[in-house]
Amino acid sequence: MEGIQIVDRTLIITLSNSIDERELFKKQDQILNTVRTRKVEQAVLDLSAVRVMDSSLFEALRKMVKTLSVIGAESVIVGIQPGAASSLVELDVDTDGLITVSTMDDGLAFLKENAGRIK
Hints:
By secondary structure, the protein is of the alpha/beta class. It is built from 4 helices and 5 strands, in the order E-E-H-E-H-E-H-E-H. It has one domain (4-113): STAS domain (Transcription Regulator spoIIAA, 2-Layer Sandwich), CATH 3.30.750. Helices cover 44% and strands 18% of the residues. The chain has a 5-stranded mixed beta sheet with strand order 1-2-3-4-5, with helices on both faces. Helix 1 links the parallel strand 2 (10-14) and strand 3 (42-46). The longest helix has 17 residues, at 21-37. It is globular and about 35 Å long. The relative contact order is 0.18.
């Protein structure tokens, strides 16, 4: 699948700048099947290319992270751009329960250090 790779039982999902919640929901089944069939234990959602984010897309991301957790994959979101972060704050979206870090390296390090402890 385009924008998805597996490295050491970690699924890396790179989202494009043009992603919207409908497209994310379409990809979700394939992502979840990949987690199940490839026995992925962790997932990194890379948003570094996403310049603008509305509350609908963010809510779809929240649901994906929760669903990944339910099937046993710990998740972290990386690369939220300053403009997207500002928009989310302005929209007063709920970020509780999400783990976000700046870079892919930080995300992979966080998952490695906290394996089995993320709820």
